[in-house]
Structures are given as structure tokens and as C-alpha cells.
Specification:
Shape of chain A: globular
Oligomer: homodimer
Order of helices and strands of chain A: EHEEEEEEE
Structural class of chain A: mainly beta
CATH superfamily of chain A: Jelly Rolls
Radius of gyration of chain A: 14 Å
Number of strands of chain A: 8
Largest sheet of chain A: 7 strands, antiparallel
Helix content of chain A: under 10%
Number of helices of chain A: 1
CATH architecture of chain A: Sandwich
CATH topology of chain A: Jelly Rolls
CATH class of chain A: Mainly Beta
Chain lengths: ~120, ~120
């Protein structure tokens, strides 16, 4: 067993794509990921897991289906409760730390989910 | 269900104690916590869980038992594998995001564990 330092900015510098989470670490069967957001993601939900968003850079709005929303900046997090339909969006590129159990499709649907490559 | 914004700096401003994690959110049965470190924590291990550290402010060193260590700054994380004996330390006050399953003693021992109050 070894102790490993993971620098999130260095990981984010390794890709340019948006809505394309990259795995940087494992925590108890969860993927710890970095991702870049620009524009609007589709509304979706995860029936069996909460969804963890921590903003690292930029500004992200998460919309709920009922017209509610939160707008988050760096150092702010939102955990979307399991089953809640939501949509992240960002006017300009934002950088985000995501945590989801391994195997969870980021769109809520395996047919449209990102591959989640490992950095 | 509601979307809630959690500002980590605002949460950290609500207490001054060290080695005293405060719960700010829940993620799938895990406590998401903020904590301030100064000085040395005891060496300990968690037999059944990985230990998630993300540095928000300051500098933290995590020592392994074999003399290995990592030194982490803001935006850097380390996930200590389950079962690995380790000790966090900080020369000056550092602010950290921790994630651990609910009920896990921060010292590895319920007799000496912090209470983990909720903010």
C-alpha cells in the first residue's frame, strides 16, 4: 500500500472534452472524478445513488425539475439526493470534482453514458 | 427533495477547534466533513474503510508507518487505503474536506473518537 498525491489541476490539464468525467482515485467502490462542464447537460436522475458535485473552478448551476436551482462557485458543493431529477449547466467552462459509485451512468442511462476513463 | 448549496469556507468559519470534524453533508451513508488540522494526529488505521482527504487551505503531510509520506496543498487529495496505518500532520493550520462512512471513529478507536457534530 502506498500514499499517493493527486493534484486535481494537473489531472484537469490532461483533457479538453466537456461532460466527460475522468477517474482520478477510488474511494470505497466510488469513482472520484474530475470533469469540465460547459453548456447544459440533459435532465436525468440516478435512482440508486446521491450525486456529489464540488466546484473547483468557475460557476455551475444545478437545476431541479420544479424550477428550483442552486448556483455554485469554487469551494461550494451540492449533493443531489438519489432519485431527484436534475441538470447541471455552466455558462463558461467550469471544473468540478464528482463522486459516484463505480458503474453509475453519468446520464442515468447506460446507453448514453460517458466512458469515465482513468487518468 | 431540495437542492442545497454548501459553502465550505462558511462552514469552516463556524468553529475554531482542531482535529474536530464537522459534518456538512451526506453522500450515500458517508459523512462529508470539514476539519482543521494543526500539529500531529496519532497514527491509526481504519480496518474497513478508505480515508478521503482533500486539502482546501494550507499544507498537510500524511505519514505512512514505513517512513513514506505525501505532502498536500490546496486542490490536492490523498485516499489512504483501508487498513493502512497513517498519521496526518500540519505545521500551520490547514483546512481539509474529509469523507468517511457514518459511524467510523476518526482515530480508528471509538473510545477516543471525535463527536463529528453537524453544522
Amino acid at each position: 500500500m502506498t500514499l499517493k498525491k493527486i493534484n486535481l489541476a494537473e489531472k484537469l490539464a490532461q483533457f479538453d472534452s466537456h461532460w466527460d468525467p475522468h477517474v482520478v482515485a477510488d474511494y470505497n467502490g466510488n469513482d472520484v472524478m474530475v470533469v469540465k462542464f460547459t453548456g447544459e447537460f440533459p435532465f436525468h436522475h440516478h435512482p440508486e445513488t446521491d450525486d456529489f458535485f464540488l466546484i473547483l473552478d468557475g460557476e455551475v448551476t444545478i437545476d431541479g425539475e420544479a424550477g428550483d436551482h442552486v448556483t455554485l462557485g469554487p469551494g461550494e458543493l451540492c449533493i443531489v439526493p438519489r432519485g431527484m431529477t436534475h441538470r447541471p449547466r455552466a455558462v463558461r467552462e467550469a471544473k468540478v470534482l464528482l463522486i459516484e459509485p463505480k458503474g453509475v451512468p453519468n446520464t442515468g442511462d447506460p446507453a448514453t453514458a460517458a466512458a469515465k476513463p482513468r487518468l
